[in-house]
Amino acid sequence: LARDTSTRDASAQASPADDSDKPALSVRHLTKTYAHATSPVLNDVSFDVPKGKVFVVLGPSGSGKSTLLRAIAGLEPIQGGTIALHGDVIDEGKPGRLTGRSKRASALRTRIGMVFQSYDLFPNKTVLGNITLAPTLVLKRKSSDVRDEAMQLLERVHLADRANSWPHELSGGQRQRVAICRALIEHPEVLLLDEITAALDPEMVREVLDVVLELADNGQTMVLVTHEMRFAEAIADHVILLEDGSIVDSTDDPKEFFTHPQSERAKKFLGSFE
Ligand code: ADP
Ligand code: MG
């Protein structure tokens, strides 16, 4: 696994003025407790993701990684803290708001894209239908434009020849690549990826990770959860380690983190993959 950072840095420099200097995503003092739970699942979590960077969230099972991504995506109400995109606060914790979706979920859905572990394509839509549904139906974009863009995206993930296939005709790796296209067609400012290769057979992991590496090279801002440590090392600009809903390690030097972990927690976590 390799990553061409030269192109990516160049593209980031090519457009310095198109956004404010605010981070693409800023999470501040995020606190979440599930209904009926006695302790918070996320406890005072804060971090910034600069535009065009890849932020990797690591942590043992149950540490709160999926909850964090779902909260950012507006799929989980939060009880404290703020979530901002380029400085716009898009969600604010309200104490006592334990259930229901974020009030901002609909406003968020075009600015944040998310792909889950289990490819959740609509079984009764073709590949093309899955990708074009939301932009034409919800965003009311012109259907021929959406179709053209969907075909370009499918070419990027090497699936143009499967445009008219049905989800059940595809392999797991192909379905995940379609799910990525479905997120990308909404031009998300931040793309959230939650263990998108965890349910795949080993021989399909690579084809999906290669697509994610290419997105990184093209400057897509991403927050991703993965158990593929070599991939994390190759793609990360920043790494955090979650434990019991708190950030226990955080670094801008992923190479150092993976090759010479400093904290006992990082050593223990990385040791569990050897
Ligand atoms: P991870 O993705 O790191 O494995 P999760 O965010 O899925 O962790 O889960 C963190 C904790 O929250 C776990 O203890 C889990 O059992 C609990 N949890 C997850 N989803 C729910 C839910 N919908 N209701 C109550 N508790 C939940
Ligand atoms: Mg999870």
From TrEMBL:
Instruction: List UniProt keywords, sorted A-Z.
Output: ATP-binding, Nucleotide-binding, Transport
A single Gene Ontology molecular function, please? ATP hydrolysis activity
Please state every residue range assigned to the domain named ABC transporter.
25-270
InterPro entries found in the cross-reference section: AAA+_ATPase, ABC_transporter-like_ATP-bd, ABC_transporter-like_CS, MetN_ABC_transporter-like, P-loop_NTPase
Does this entry carry the keyword Transcription?
Answer: no
Q: Which Pfam families match?
A: ABC_tran
Organism's domain of life? Bacteria
Q: Does the keyword Nucleotide-binding apply?
A: yes
What family does this chain come from, according to its entry?
Belongs to the ABC transporter superfamily.
Task: State what protein this is by name.
Answer: Glutamine ABC transporter ATP-binding protein
Question: What species does this protein belong to?
Answer: Pseudoscardovia suis
